[in-house]
Structures are given as C-alpha cells and as structure tokens.
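Class prep. Write one:
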Amino acid sequence: MRLVAAIILTILLLFHGNSTDANSESTLQELDQLADEALQLTKFSRLEEAKAILERFAVQFSEQGIKEGKFTMDELRVLTASHHEALRAVTNINMSLEERIRLVTSFRLAADAISSTHQPMWIEMEASVMKEFQKVKNAALEGNKEAYNQNLNTFLSTYTVIQPSLKIDLAAEKLQKLDSKITYIDRYRSDFSEQEWTAHLESLEQDLQKIFSNPDEDEADPSLWWVISMTGSIIILTLSYVSWRKYRGEKQQKKSKDPNN
C-alpha cells in the first residue's frame, strides 16, 4: 500500500509540475500576443485601440506575471520601463508616427525576448543595425564630420530599439562592455580623429557582430570549466567506488550466509 501511495503521489507531483509549466507558457504567449497587437495597431495609427491593448497587458502582466513570480527582477524592471515608453508613444499627441512605432517596436521586442527561448525577434534587427553602423564607419573613414554625426544619431536611434531586449537576453558584463563603447563614441564625437575613431569603430563593430551571431555564447573563464570538469569526474569516480564497495559487501554477505559454504 505504501508503494502504491508513493507512486500516486509521484504522478500527482509530476502532473502538477507540467500543469504549472503549461500555465506559465500560456501566460507568456498571451502577453506576447498583446504586445504584437499593440504594435500592429500603432502602425495603422489606431492609437486608442493600441492604448487599450497596452492597458490590458499591464493588468495581465501584474496579475499573472508579477504576483505569480514568473519573471526575474531584471525582466520586471526592463519590461515595465519599456511598457511605460510604449504607452507614452500612443498617448503623446505631439509625437511623430515614426517615433511611436520605434518605441512600441522596442516594447514588442522586449516582450518577445522574455517569452522566447530560441531565436528572439530582436536578432532580426541585425541588418538594420549593421547598415546604420556601416554608414557611421564610412563617414569616419572619409573624415566627413557632418555625415558622421548625422549617421551616428540614426544608428543610436536604431540601437535603442533593441537595447531593452539586450538587457533581458545578454549577460550584464557583455552588455556593459558594448554600451560603454557606444557611449564613448557618442560622448566624444566632437573630438573627431580618423585614425583613432577607426580603431574604436572596428572594435565596436566586432562586438555588435558577436551579439547577433552568438547571443547565448558562454563567456565563462576556461579555467572555471576545467574546475567543473575535474569536480564532476571526481564525483563520478567516488560514486562508482561507493557502488562497487556496496556490491562487493552484499556479495560477500550472501556468500557467508550460504549453507553450502
């Protein structure tokens, strides 16, 4: 009876776990769908409807996301800030349609970054981001300060669209390194030197290419992996030795109890 009860309890726990995972996935999909609807409505200037969808998102996000603890603190902070900007975009009467779409797109990508476990949508922005960056680099190589400043502004505007998503998907150290380089070329743009800026821009270009090609790349210290590997090997050997000793002891015990011996 105890065995049967244990089996039933195990099945119930497994079922509950699968049910919880399914509910969590359903909530994320619903939030992702609302974010997409808000973006599509914004593109067609149906701002009141977009506002209503964003408000529904806020209610559901609070009730099913925050209260049930489905998100990390970083995800909560980033998505809340991005949602605030999207809501501002559809309620500010003085904002251009292009700017509205940019802000709501940023929110939509952030919502997708939370719900996606593979190939998030922000990666599809690679062509746009790298195209604008190439214009910045070309202007620097040509020594054209006016074009450089203009193209840099456009690049920064494009980059901010994916920045909330990067905060969700990238390791903090990797994003900090990338943002510090972007901040540098923005802050010291007046000190234009072709040779110096070429080196800075090439370094930044490599980092941008890495985040799009390997967003989930693990940058852990190789020595750390060596320690983990060695520790795992020691644990396996220890368990194997303990199992062998137990098997040998049980065999000897049976042998000593054998009346034929």
Notes: DSSP finds nine helices and no strands in the chain. The chain has two domains: 29-115, 117-217. Residues 117-217 form a domain with the Four Helix Bundle (Hemerythrin (Met), subunit A) fold (CATH 1.20.120).
